[in-house]
Amino acid sequence: MSAPAGSYAPAVSRALRVLALLEAAGGGTLGVSEMARQLGVARSSLHNVCLALEAEGVVQRSEGGYRLGRRLVELGGAYLRTVDPVQAFYQACSDTSFLHNEICQLAVLDGTDVLYLAAHAGRLPLRMTASIGSRFPASITAVGNALLAQLDDDELRQRFEDPATRPAWTASSITDLDALIDKIRDTRGRGHALDEGEVFPGIRGLAVAVAPQYSGEQAYAVGASLLEVYCNAHIEQQAVEALSAMAAHIANPMNLGTGSAFVDA
């Protein structure tokens, strides 16, 4: 596999193909001869490419050949620092066929409330009151429950001691403190949060937490609001999978993370 026809810099294209081969090796090593064979190029020219990559630290040589180098970690980290969670959220909503049609939210926890940082309207005939900058009680929202699942039970009990922090917006809203803690425990065990008409009657909310990239980073959650009348186990599973993929993309656009973060109480 030679450099693409019309390549502006054939040597650069060849170097990137070397990196792709080493990535596919899954942490193993590849010799110059083997890479030259797979790429369909002369061993001598590829040897020079590998020497240049080694000099820059993006590959390292070992007894069995070459493997990816530590410099790639630094470059990847620099890229991750440029990623805006809001931008990543909207990109995921646009790129995911399931979420593109649904009402979705990106939120953070602020005390006993959630604050919406981004909202995707979807294509459903619904007009939800949640918009960018809106605050909702964390106790009854799916995104709130996903974020609360990262706290231990003692922290939950202290934070929600005041009954005013556990409002009833619908007949389904859970307002009892012990019941709220039980619900958050269920969220941890399930791996995603569930709002069964606690905010809006007839609306089923699903959410997952976004795993932080580093200690101390602001915690996020992504959620989707579905019409209960159209919701079944298959659709709910689709929603959870799509939200988990979105969370993984926001947490790490290079798909190195799991996308969901819960703690054991």
TrEMBL record:
| InterPro entries registered for this protein in UniProt | GAF-like_dom_sf, HTH_MetabolicPath_Reg, Tscrpt_reg_IclR_C, Tscrpt_reg_IclR_N, WH-like_DNA-bd_sf, WH_DNA-bd_sf
Q: Where is the HTH iclR-type domain?
A: 9-70
What positions does the domain IclR-ED occupy?
A: 71-256
Keyword field contains Transcription: yes
Task: Kindly list the biological process annotations in GO that this record carries.
Answer: negative regulation of DNA-templated transcription
Q: Name one GO molecular function term.
A: DNA-binding transcription factor activity
Q: State what protein this is by name.
A: HTH-type transcriptional repressor AllR
- Protein source organism: Kushneria phyllosphaerae
